[in-house]
Write a structure and sequence with these properties.
By secondary structure, this protein is an alpha/beta fold. Helix content is about 40%, strand content about 15%. It has 2 domains: about 190 residues, FAD/NAD(P)-binding domain, CATH 3.50.50.60; about 280 residues. It binds flavin-adenine dinucleotide.
Length: about 525
Amino acid sequence: MSANNYDAIVIGAGHNGLVTAAYLAKAGIKTLVVEANDRPGGAAVTREFAPGFRTSAVAHLLHALHPRVIRDLGLEGHGLRATQHRVGTTALIPGGPRIDLTGDAAATAASIGKVSPADAEAYPRVMARLVRLSSALGDFLLRTPPSPLAGANDFQTKLALGMFALKLRMLGKKDMLELSRILTINVADLATDFFESDAIKGLLALEATLGVYLGPRSPNTVFNLLYRLSSFGKNGLGGFYLPTGGMGSVVDALVKAATAAGATIRTGAPVERLLIEKEIATGVVLKSGEEIRAPIVASSADPQRTLLHLVPPGNLDIEFSKRIRHLRMNGCVAKIHLALDGLPDALKSSGGRVVVAPGIDHVERAFDCAKYGRVSDKPALEIVIPTLSDPSLAPAGKQVLSILYQYAPYRLRATPPDQARAQVFERGLDLLEQAAPGTRRLVRAAETLTPHDLETQFGLSGGQWHQGEVTLDQVFFLRPAASFQRYRMPIPGLWLCGAGAHPGGNVSGAAGANAAREILKDVKARKTRAAA
Ligand SMILES: Cc1cc2nc3c(=O)[nH]c(=O)nc-3n(C[C@H](O)[C@H](O)[C@H](O)COP(=O)(O)OP(=O)(O)OC[C@H]3O[C@@H](n4cnc5c(N)ncnc54)[C@H](O)[C@@H]3O)c2cc1C
């Protein structure tokens, strides 16, 4: 085999691409990963944003990394310390009360009780039920979605579907009915059904809309909430964590796992196009003109980039191309990174994650701006303080804030990108100053990344969180398109292994692991056929 021939090429060294590469290499497949950027990680990276100050540049909270991926790839043996620093959530209402939600049930109830005794009683009960329902759905995160077409599923998929149906039934009649009732409704209705305080309702509104181009009164938002909560049961880490060293530490462990298994990783190696011969994918051509060949090409770049830009024109069915072109990819979250001389009092006493979403109407109005192509006048914010758990991310005595600003739409109607960036910074800081007075005077440096910046700097098309929104019409057997949910694309030899495939985004490794399993199944079937 020549140096430029491999068994498999993985496009993109985001965390999912690395997961796929590690599983393939462990199975003895000679695997090459080619990454456009000059470092691996995609949207899961730690980088310096001001001299001496580092933070997770895009994804900042670890909660969804699947325990089976950690185990299978021995990530702890490769240095991953995912669950050392669990964070609690503080909901701040500017000029109003605060609520601290921690791992301590009594303290949490006491904190909510100061705002609403009824919510203090309801919160643990309602959240436990939502986590139970989301866990039942979450059992499908690490499985390949079945085809809705009769006769199209193999025995294993049918068995998985049967087990899934059984688990749903085991929820019991009441929970089953509740799941059917809430799955397609909006989170504003759900929150109003169970809670009375703006602090809790606003918090739920943000949890349910973060990363999707929906407001709390949009249908489907409870589904997004359940998707997020699915990592709070056995299909994730069970809570929010700040990994030591930032999100880049997850990727460091994945790089070690993949290379220890024999994979080769090349950074600064953007793929220009796929090599397609006799309608079969046979490798890639890099921007440099270098050709690399392999019978398996798995792309962790998003579906639009992979299928509309890397696949040369004329190789895909028109209907399929149209479906991919119409995937909703409108990113709506910007990031602000602040280098601080210290922490204001309101943040010092927080649980490490702070949410400023003072009510459903606040979040809905923030979305109204985005609907008409404007940066929210008053955003909803999710703030984490990575230096609380890892002081080495800043010089001694200094602090870092990593802030998600919802909503800053990718598709702006009249605002030039530079103005949008300035608006995100000013409006974000204004709201933060109201919620945590004294923040502004502590800022010594800052970085603001709009969805446009996330696209150009991290290769996220549309700056979208999930490589394509996770809504009921774009999940499960419809992800990325009907009949192509099995990671296998219409061109033989081409597979999808990033968040654009089932089950979607978050730093979970699920799409990468599922794709590797399907590829290995195919390799085995070919070998069996060849031997027969
Ligand atoms: C603002 C924001 C905040 C988020 N916060 C969180 C969070 O707190 N927690 C969480 O769990 N998730 C979060 N997410 C979601 C999470 O970051 C992503 O869903 C996840 O990182 C996607 O991983 P991936 O490996 O599938 O894709 P990516 O990380 O996008 O990796 C794809 C890789 O492919 C490379 N690539 C693309 N084209 C080419 C090419 N032509 N040649 C070679 N390489 C190429 C890219 O450079 C990239 O490295 C957030 C997302 C956003 C946008």
